Amino acid sequence: MQREVDVVILGAGPVGENVADRVRAAGLEVVIVEHELVGGECSYWACVPSKVLLRSAAALRAAKRVPGAAEAVTGDLDVEAVLRRRDSWVSDWDDHGAVGWLDDAGIGLERGHGRLDGPKRVVVTRDGDDERDEAVTFVARHAVIVATGSDPVMPSIEGLAESSPWTSREATSVERPPARLAILGGGVVACEMATVFAGFGTEVVVLARSGLLGAMEPFVGDAVTAGLRGLGATVRTGVQATLVERTADGEVVLTLDDGSTVVADEVLVATGRKPRTDAIGLETVGLEPGDWLRVDEGMAVEGVPAEPSGENDSGSGTPWLYAAGDVNHRALLTHQGKYQGRAAGDLIAARAAGHPVDLAEWGVHAATADHVAVPQVVFAEPEAVAVGLTEAAATKAGRSVRTVEVSMTSASGAGILADGYEGRAKLVIDDELGTVIGATFTGQDVAELLHAATVAIVGEVPVERLWHAVPSFPTMSEIWLRLLEADGRPEARA
Ligand SMILES: Cc1cc2nc3c(=O)[nH]c(=O)nc-3n(C[C@H](O)[C@H](O)[C@H](O)COP(=O)(O)OP(=O)(O)OC[C@H]3O[C@@H](n4cnc5c(N)ncnc54)[C@H](O)[C@@H]3O)c2cc1C
Ligand SMILES: NC(=O)c1ccc[n+]([C@@H]2O[C@H](COP(=O)([O-])OP(=O)(O)OC[C@H]3O[C@@H](n4cnc5c(N)ncnc54)[C@H](O)[C@@H]3O)[C@@H](O)[C@H]2O)c1
């Protein structure tokens, strides 16, 4: 069967949904193809369940840090209740609600595995096998968007793949926390999952080949290492597993490169992601299966010739293949992928209607923030949040910068929030521009401080002007004032 529609989207994760929403809002006919659950990794095995699993123990720790509330905490974490709350947030891995949203928005859903079949053509099969199944072929009048996301990387460590390792999927959908968990990796998934399971009372060992959260300011890794140890986890850095074996008793034995061994009940692999592009027909449009999809500022895939596009085509052709979200490797974060999806959806609609497009820096159709201000919240113990450039990245990029760094306790709000509060804040300021280009905070509940930093960076607010953005007393936002004071009060203009 063959059907013509305006736009076809591969993958109904958060990013595919956002593209669909924008093109549908512009009146285009859109079909989204999904072979698993509408809502994607984020809703069922990543952001949502992981944050719900983290929240209860974080609330308990917060209560224990405040006299008066601490005395009222008389029991331990109710792990069963936490898991039930997680089940509710993932709707028991049922996508009825998300499908209802698609229906209400007038977005078509085709369940099955989608793959490209030459320019503007997508074949969908129920089980991914064209031969055995009746396939539906969609021909897109305007565009095909790949929003297929990413999968965990399985490092080639002897015996690992045969040891039934966990990935983030098993960890976020856990039904009975293991007594002992070994975690390979020192990135975001490793730190968040170590926080979850240590909070559950699991004996956690994190095995990281370098420090934790190496892409952030160095004090972040130190803080999270200390925080995890405070929860009873073991954090071993500078080590690598060389052999993994699942014994007849069901234990996992990991041999490390220093000759030592770690014994656990499960091993979680948290060593990064690879693109879900190996079976989506990239070869039919001249691209390499398994590669990340390189895109331009409007998410059009590079290296794919433009095609004529309806009556509004000027003759030179219009880009037709787009990639948004994890699959383009610009920023593996839901919010950033959705941002790309909104821009790309509007761009596709504008091109289809023959309207002007704006791909200039900060233009409505350009995902400029991907290069300048990607906010990330690591919901570990403690929280670690950052946006923009670290000092090291800015210096490497040849920027002339100065930095200011203060203790979070210099803001009264932090001290009131919790006794014994610990945390740091740092700004990276571009000397030439006189604006903030990077910000990092650690400590309890710093997540909500991050958006102010994102606004300052995206808005290119001069540091001088930030002195007029007065934080309320006694909130943690007063840390901004402390940071500005550390930078020095501006002198009057002559
Ligand atoms: C444990 C964990 C926690 C995370 N926590 C956060 C967080 O707190 N905040 C944050 O911003 N990010 C977080 N992330 C990252 C976030 O999950 C991803 O950035 C986000 O899911 C990417 O969205 P996406 O739509 O690009 O891909 P996905 O969410 O992976 O969705 C892609 C969809 O495409 C479908 N699909 C793939 N191939 C095909 C095909 N050929 N045919 C049909 N359908 C197909 C898949 O089934 C899936 O539904 C986390 C990641 C992990 C692993
Ligand atoms: N709160 C959030 O925003 C959130 C939470 C979880 C995941 N995510 C996103 O999901 C993505 C995946 O997270 P992740 O933690 O898997 O990846 P990551 O890139 O953050 O970290 C990967 C870690 O694995 C280590 N590593 C890589 N190969 C290894 C090997 N062969 N042996 C041992 N260690 C190895 C790296 O040194 C690094 O510490 C990230 O890009 C992250 O942004 C975001």
UniProtKB/TrEMBL annotation:
Answer whether the UniProt record assigns the keyword Transmembrane helix to this protein.
Answer: no
What does the entry list as the binding residues for NAD(+)?
G185, G186, G187, V188, V189, A190, C191, E192, G272
Q: Where is the FAD/NAD(P)-binding domain?
A: 6-337
Cofactor: bound how, per the entry note? Binds 1 FAD per subunit.
Query: Which GO biological process categories is it annotated with?
Result: 2-oxoglutarate metabolic process
> In which family does this protein belong, per the annotation?
Belongs to the class-I pyridine nucleotide-disulfide oxidoreductase family.
Could you tell me what this protein is called?
A: Pyridine nucleotide-disulfide oxidoreductase
Q: Which organism is it from?
A: Agromyces aureus
**Classification lineage:** Bacteria, Bacillati, Actinomycetota, Actinomycetes, Micrococcales
